């Protein structure tokens, strides 16, 4: 065979090979990697499952999940945003939301919602509203927490006290706490609630139930120092003084959920994140129940959500929205139900079904009356810490009114920044 013919055949084979490779080369060129930032390792398997399904449905998009411990998450995200290299999609929470929205770190999602498949009516209303800023929906709620009251049936039986029900009142709770104190004779505490941190699973709920809003609203200043608020603080002071609750010092030294799980408390205010640990604990799961929080002047409570946000500087906004849309679908939300209450109201019921041995539907029922976790200004963590500092003194015995009078104006100024 002549060298010329051989060369011709080689060229022909090369051309065929190139033609066959062309779709692969174009496919590779079209590959996009989305960076997605999260902070909870316990929820990583569910996130990976959702990402895998998304990649199968969208073979030209790869999702790179970036896990950062919660304590370092916003430090890292702040730095990345300042450098213009924030992840395409990231978790945002309510305390940091306004700061990120006001500083232009998140892309508004309202334009994408108009032609998209995300129906905000299917999501817990208080969470949807919490992630709106300047007339725009800035993030899509991912999950939601709510608060309920757990009770130990053995301790109630031991004290001869009837179990609480969903329609009980604050006066009912105080009456039961008094009866439990008498009946238990010091063997266990009637009630515990965590007063040492931000109040999401304790005093914030009481303030909402008393009719307060905590943050400025409708042109009115914060009401954390008004008569209703002082009443709440003094109610808790009195219950600690009367031995119906441990002292604030005791509850800061031992986690309230641990006191309850060791059968040393008859009742505990607890967030939905503790539902599975309680229900799966063999030391208590055959003699515990859970009900909605008692009503004061109205039925209410705190609901906090994480949400999906898109970086304003993402180079792949259409793909980022496609992923947010996929994660917000009922199917993806049902996957999250294995670990958290999904923000989707239909999928939220699946969370309750996932938890065996104890009926935890009061958490889902509570979502119908909750208000969003209170945030104000661009530095919610700062004013919260100032408030917590004052409350710690109050719960240790300081006069509630005089202590709040000292700090409320400073707190108010931070809220308005």
UniProtKB/TrEMBL annotation:
It comes from the Bacteria. Residues 1-28 form the signal peptide. The keyword Transport applies. It is found in: Periplasm. GO terms for cellular component: cell envelope; periplasmic space. PANTHER family: ARABINOSE-BINDING PROTEIN-RELATED (PTHR43649), SN-GLYCEROL-3-PHOSPHATE-BINDING PERIPLASMIC PROTEIN UGPB (PTHR43649:SF31). This is sn-glycerol-3-phosphate-binding periplasmic protein UgpB.
